[in-house]
Specification:
four-stranded antiparallel β-sheet; seven-stranded mixed β-sheet; 119 residues; mainly beta; 0% helix; 11 strands
């Protein structure tokens, strides 16, 4: 059974930090490119960052570049998103996504974790 389970969300003040986690199970982690997305209220889902678990190559949306860091722990089938210098506009539900590197029609989503940046 494939599962992606996010955790680590919460309420943080502007300028603060949070670390999100995504626990993956039921599929071969190294065969998938892992991504974070977010969706703010009333807005479309937005790409945040991605990482290839095999070579560690990363990519970021311009809105988070220099503030967020995506990483994986392949031994634990875990993905992380370290978020620093958080802004109110980072408030959203953050979801992890796994897409097969060769067969992109095979993809999975987690249920999401709420991040609220507010004073």
């Amino acid at each position: 059974q494939v599962q992606l389970v996010e955790s680590g969300g919460g309420l943080v003040q502007p300028g603060g930090s949070l670390r999100l986690s995504c626990a993956a199970s039921g599929f071969t982690f190294s065969n998938y490119r892992m991504r974070w997305y977010r969706q703010a209220p009333g807005k479309e889902r937005e790409y945040v960052a991605s990482i290839a678990s095999t070579d560690g190559s990363t990519n970021y949306a311009d809105s988070v570049k220099g503030r967020f860091t995506i990483s994986t722990d392949n031994a634990k089938n875990m993905m992380y998103l370290q978020m620093n210098s958080l802004k109110p506009e980072d408030t959203a539900v953050y979801s992890c996504n796994a897409v097969h590197k060769i067969f992109p029609n095979f993809y999975y989503w987690g249920q999401g974790t709420q991040v609220t940046v507010s004073s």
